[in-house]
Amino acid sequence: MTRRAGEAILIAICAAYAVFCVATRPAGPLTSPDSAVYLAFSPVVPAGYPAFLRAIGERGAVVAQPLIYAAALAALGIETLTATASLLLAAAVVVASIAVPEIRMYHASIQTESLFMSALLSFLAAAIRFARTSSLSSAAAAAMLAGLATTLRTTGFAFLPVLVAMVLLERRRLAGPVWRGLIAATLPMLALAAGERAAARVIHGDRLTSLAGRHLYAKAALIDAPPSSRPAADPLRAQLDDQLTGTFAPIRSAIDAAPREVRPVLTLYYEGCLQGRCVPQLGETQAGSEDPALAAALAEVGRARIIRAPVGFISLTATNYASLWTVYKQRHPDTAPALNAWMAANRPLPFERQAFGLGRDDVPAFQPLAAVRVLQPIVLALGAVTGILAFVGLAAGVAGRRLPLPLTVACVAALTAHSGLIFSATFAAGIARFMVAFWPAVTTSALFAGYAAAAGRLPPPSADALQ
Questions:
Q1: Taking the model in full, what pTM does it have?
Q2: Where does residue 16 rank: exposed (0-12), middle (13-18), buried (19+ CB within 10 A)?
């Protein structure tokens, strides 16, 4: 089969997927509490996605999102085919990137996941081209796509170390000195990120803020820390610090007293609650609606407590990171009944209405899902394999050792996935949709690694495979 025929097959698969998503989309866009900040062009989020919504509207967005995703996926498939001459691998990469059912729902949602994943797929395609050509133009293209990702979600900054590693892995093939490759692979990203911040400043003026205050304060509330050696400078900061010390201590005690399999679920729910509903100064307010002075105070007080307890913060980050690799964590057949039993035996729980939506007479009712027993070992295996590949890629980049192209791609994709998930675990909670957003990088890494392992045992492609 010629390469042109293979490309046609890949494009047909992606086009069929786009048509299916558009044809089966709900009657109206799916929304969540997060949707409001994008529709309102809130100063708390990057400007890219709100601008996209303003340009084409809600209904236009849920049509455009699967089309953009399909185009990016086709680019990834074609780059895979060009680099390896394996239609089977290219088709597997494409199918694995659409196999998770939640992805289709994200295309129909007013959330950043769909466009962010499109940027991720395009970034992986550019990374494959760079591994194939080692050209400065392909490095710059990857950097521009990473920069585009930062205008959608701050998680896009996790691509920066991947770009550096990508160049170091190929530095022996670069046409010039390595510093030129590093500049080509980072400057466009940083310029786009800076441009987005400048545009946001023009749009929002003094109202410009971020989610950092809510997130840092929530994380600080979940860790034990010694008291501050200096009193807070103003009453608001003193009040926020007192809440961290005393008001939220029962939450920490409840989590510490829970069985090991229950703690990650409690941590997830409480961290989400401590970003808003559990905090008296925030309550049910929409993120970004708070006074910038309050946002700054939350960030300052939270950051100071985290600095006083770095081990606790690292432990919380590790818990969130592990949660990202846990499938339907509250629905595991062993966890769900243990969670229900522990919650029922220890009620009233601190802030149980705000964190779990439980009224006085409600009964905890997390439902087990038998399929998790099969899915969880697969996800953990992929996490372990891609973790090893990420380490191999970093070690090879530092040592300046060039790897075979399929293994290079596997390592770069693994670095992309783990860098993104570590970023998410560090600065946010262990929410499942953060994992789904990076799932194509996980599967692309594993598939390229499998192809690399099999390459030595397979006959080379025929001479006309790339024609």
A1: 0.92
A2: exposed
SS3 278: coil
CA 183 to chain CA mean position, Å: 25
Task: Kindly state whether residue 362 falls inside one of the protein's structural domains.
Answer: no
Collapsed DSSP state (helix, strand, coil) of residue 285? coil
Q: Is the pLDDT of residue 465 over 60?
A: no
Indicate the burial class of 161 (C-beta count within 10 angstroms; 0-12, 13-18, 19 or more). middle
Instruction: Kindly report the average pLDDT of the chain as a whole number.
Output: 91
Question: What is the tens place of the pLDDT at every residue in 277-318?
Answer: 999 988 877 777 778 888 899 999 999 999 999 999 999 999
Q: What pLDDT does residue 413 have?
A: 97
Say whether the peptide bond before residue 348 is cis (omega within 30 degrees of 0): yes
Tokens of residue 464, six digits:
């006309």
In a domain, 318, yes or no: no
DSSP 8-state assignment for residue 176 = S
Tens digits of per-residue pLDDT, 60-83?
999 999 999 999 999 999 999 999
Mean pLDDT of 208-213: 88
Rounded CA-CA distance 98/458 in Å is 27
In the block, residue with structure tokens 């998770």? 100
> Alpha-carbon distance 324 to 434, whole Å?
7
Largest CA distance in the chain: 75
Residue 463 lies in a domain: no
Q: How far apart are CA 465 and CA 2, in angstroms?
A: 5
User: Which distant-in-sequence residues (6+ apart) come within 8 Å of 404 by Cβ?
Assistant: 452, 455
Give me the pLDDT at residue 457, please.
53
Q: In this structure, is residue 365 part of a structural domain?
A: no
Rounded Cα gap, residues 139 and 336, in angstroms: 46
Considering the domain architecture, whether residues 43 and 116 belong to the same structural domain is answered as yes
What are residue 288's phi and psi, to 5 degrees?
95, -15
- Residue found by looking up tokens 């939220």 in the block: 248
Closest CA to 340 of 354, 330, 355, 348: 330
Report helix, strand or coil for 109.
strand
Phi/psi at 164 (nearest 5 deg)? -65, -45
Q: How many domains does the chain have?
A: 2
Range of the domain at 247: 212-308+334-356
Residues 175 and 270 in one domain: no
For 12-26, what is the mean pLDDT? 95
Strands (E), 248-397: none
Rounded to 10 degrees, what is the CA torsion of 191, 193, 199, 200? -160
For residue range 222-256, what is the model confidence (pLDDT) as tens digits? 999 998 877 777 899 999 999 999 999 999 999 99
Which of the four pLDDT bands, split at 50, 70 and 90, describes residue 360?
confident
Listing DSSP states for 140-190 in one string gives HHHHHHHHHHHHH-GGGGGHHHHHHHHHHHTGGG-SS-HHHHHHHHHHHHH
437 closest CA partner among 44, 67, 153, 28: 153
